Protein 1
Amino acid sequence: MHDASEAYLQDISKPLKAHLPEYKVIETRMMERMALHFGFAWPKSIEVENADKAAMEEEWRDIMLGNPEEEEFITRAHVCERFLIHYHRFKPTPKQFPETATP
């Protein structure tokens, strides 16, 4: 959920985003509202920030540069499986966000 605003705005690269201060304001407002609605922490934690950076570096290495150690192309099923593992690892609990708990 750390990049949820991209579903409604755009995924803009960091170098370009640095030159768009108005975009950052809009993106922050969108993320604050989404965090409140869906019950996730915002601003994102240092752990999420580090995981996002590591994923970006891995994607750049494996997809853009090609990873000679990669034996086979990463499949959609593999991506979904890895996403769910990390989602369940980091998702908030009702104890963290009681207003999102179902009765």
Protein 2
Amino acid sequence: MLPHHKPSNSLNNLAIKNKQMKKYILRLCLALTLTIITSVAVYAQPGFDDDVEDTPIDGGVSLLVGAGIAYGVKRIYYHKKESTNDIV
């Protein structure tokens, strides 16, 4: 008789990582799509009369800075949460 072969944890870990990667790629595509749509909408605004100077919009840099700050705050929060759980 052949011994029963148990699936290894590495296959389960690989499946979990694959699922996380798909989620990450989906979020990245969504963020890029929203950024492109927003930037196109900004450039589609009508111009002013000749007596007013046009002021350029920053092209989405402020959105990227805001997203970076939010990501940093999230990472710090989870890092502190993990470190307090390790102590208990």
Protein 3
Amino acid sequence: MLWILIIGGMGAINTDSQWWYAQLVAKSCLSIGILKTSEISFFLQEFFWTDLYLFEIFKDFWEDIGTALEVENNLSRVVDELDSGELAVC
């Protein structure tokens, strides 16, 4: 499923849907333990992965995924801390 979302996102480069796909890829990555965009190629190397996906034309998409990963990961940490009562409010 992750590979399908990545291909969809690459097809959405420079459209209004690019960020939507980046967010879905980020959420999918976090759900399977991928925390950085650099880990995606390692995870998918035995699947339909090629370094062509890293060409310059896709740079903005990968940056969007990185941003979405940071946002989603930080949100999940806040939720975890809220659930555990460990969130310090300043």
